[in-house]
Amino acid sequence: MKLVSIDHIPGMELEALGIVKGATVQTKHVGKDFMAAMKTLVGGELTDYTEMLTEARQIATKRMVDEAEALGADAIVGIRYGSSAIMSSAAEVIAYGTAVKYRQ
Question: Which residues contact 19 (CB under 8 A, 6 or more apart)?
């Protein structure tokens, strides 16, 4: 499955099958949350949250690809990611794009 953020694949004629998406809500346990709060006092990267969001993007991407495969897609174009806070220690990540089939 080819995944691209551009709206077309150079040299290919595409048939749009529809929008596909994948989402997940992730959180860290209270101990990690507490340590992250302490880190904000001194500054720097919150690596536990970076890892959490990286994992969430991977899960959302896989769910999006699974949905595209179920439609018989060859690729997904125009891929975008979004995130939002659900509560103080939980974030939703969504991946979405347009499933396409190559025209022969």
Answer: 96, 97, 98, 99
Q: Which amino acid is at 88?
A: S
CA distances from 36 to 31, 70, 71, 81, 99 (A): 9, 39, 41, 24, 38
Cβ neighbours for 34, distance < 8 A, ≥ 6 positions apart = none
> What pLDDT, in 10s, does the model give residues 36-66?
554 455 566 667 778 888 999 999 999 999 9
Domains of the chain: 2-102 (3.30.110.70)
pTM above 0.90, yes or no: no
